[in-house]
Amino acid sequence: YRPLETYTIGRNEIVGGTVSPSYILPFPGLQRLQKLMDEYAGGVTVQYMTNDKLLNMGLHKLKILEEDLEKIGAEDIHQLLRAWELKHRHRTSECVVQHTLFREETRWPGYYYRGDKMKLDDDNWHVLTTSHRDRVTGEYKMEKQPLYHLIDEK
Asked: Mean pLDDT over residues 16-20, rounded?
């Protein structure tokens, strides 16, 4: 219930509209996350194209957003649900960027092109990528796992 408490304490510090120096509401946070993923992780406005530099910049901006989400506020129970949903979406977005950065190829259909690695490399990358995030350090351990086809593609 911390977002409810954060909002209650800081609700009188609004500087304009719903902008407050003490908290961020779920909807503006979601807009920031969507814009960040669109621009840095290969969204529609960049025609599904990304590269190492953009992905690393995206990870940096996700870290900044994570710090801001520590001060997420919620006016009511509905916004509290949205606040927790946003935190989960943030973690999912971080995983997507990490997996895209790990996979050194363009994977279509996978809905992104790597501008710095434009080849489809089935010899090395026709695999599943799995990850484990260390809760203490926040570091990801990425691995390749074999992909088994249950139905023959012939």
From this structure: 83
pLDDT per residue as tens digits for the range 87-120: 999 999 999 999 999 998 887 776 788 999 988 8
Tell me, what's the pLDDT at 1? 84
Residue 83: partners with Cβ closer than 8 Å, 6 or more residues away: 3, 26, 29, 72, 73, 74
Q: Which amino acid is at 62?
A: L
* Residue 103: HSE in the Cβ half-sphere, 13 Å Cα cutoff: 31
Give the global pTM: 0.89
Within-domain flag for 142: no
CATH of the domain at 81: 1.20.58.100
List of residues 6+ apart from 30 with CB closer than 8 A: 82, 86, 89
DSSP assignment of 77-125: HHHHHHHHHHHHHHHHHHHHHHHHHHS-S-BTTTTBEETT--S--HHHH
Domain that includes residue 15, residue range: 2-118
